[in-house]
Amino acid sequence: MPPFDLILRRARLQDHSVPQDIAIAAGTFAAIAPRLDATAREEIDCSDRLAIPPFVESHIHLDSADTAGEPRWNESGTLFEGIEIWRDRKQKLSIEDVEQRAIATLKTQAAQGVLHVRSHADVSESSLIALKGLLAVREEVKDWMNLQVVAFPQDGLYGSPQQLELMEEALKLGADAIGGIPHYELTREDGVRSLQQIFDWAEQYDKLIDIHCDEIDDDQSRFLEVMVAQTLRRDLGSRVTASHTTAFHSYNNGYAQKLLGSIRRTQLNCVANPLINITLQGRTDTYPKRRGVTRVKELWQQGNNVSLGHDCIRDPWYSLGTGNMLNVAHMAVHICQMTGREQVKACLDMVTHNGAKTLNLDDRYGIALGRPASLVVLDASDEFEAIRTQAAALYTLSHGRILACTPAARPKLFLPEPSPRL
Ligand code: FE2
Prior knowledge:
By secondary structure, the chain is an alpha/beta fold.
């Protein structure tokens, strides 16, 4: 057998019962077997550690990342104060400012095994600086990070007279997907109209769709059903993503059941952002206080594709955040009450395989022969332990080369000598 570029020895894979050797050549997976009698320029002993495909960040706002406190802190903690603060901060945006913060954030993510990121770019500002900055970043990082950019009209599609023109310009400049925010439009009718326009553009410009949908505690906010109808009638299926959908939490169960069934028919993707929506939602409630995260467990149980996002890292909406997708999955386990053994594993899928479906990565993703040799070796023996301990990414491989490594943390304990027994 010819020598390979790299062999990982004794890696635990999700679909194998015994550890596997994984050989890599020319940036792709070349052989996978319990024991490979072959040599390579470099070998890594995984010692029965879990190897999974890279983490997928399905939903983040890189243009606002790392701006918390600028020009002021969000003291109410609400979505709407966040939008007000961002409206002020974005007056000071420059391409360099966006690039510098976005690349720093992507490096933080890559160091933790994230190699696919979908970022929204606010296109409600007249120079499209956030979008242009992120499109430049997409090009700059393409050798080590797959970045998708969504043209997102933060202030609404009808928020200003020139917004429609700005959206089309953003699509022509090369945005991967079209965003929207129907619940933030002035009327229900405007929200519906905005979705029709977005779906028209998606067909006209051949773009993916990712809508900030029903991110509000109002149980009358029902734009997800409009997305479902548009997706079905235009047969766009998995090219469409509904993000946040926090009002789903507050719908009556009869309506929610109907909606779950129709989502299943469409194949559209749902993205939940548990870190941020557990802090943003329910702010006007006294007690009982709603959790405000969409119905992740029920969507998953009915076979819908659900993935998870960080949404924000140190910005006007959420001043915390680490970029670690296991942190996101861990939070989902708790908020969505997915503590069953299979349910915990499902939450790991939501930051890996399911995210890949949301991003339409198809055969560019997964540990399989012929695919790009990108993976993460976690300091954990299985999926459950990975979530429980929020395991470190010992090695992150991108297209066959080591992109990042984190030494395993093994704390030393210095216990006092036991007291002599009397
Ligand atoms: Fe968002």
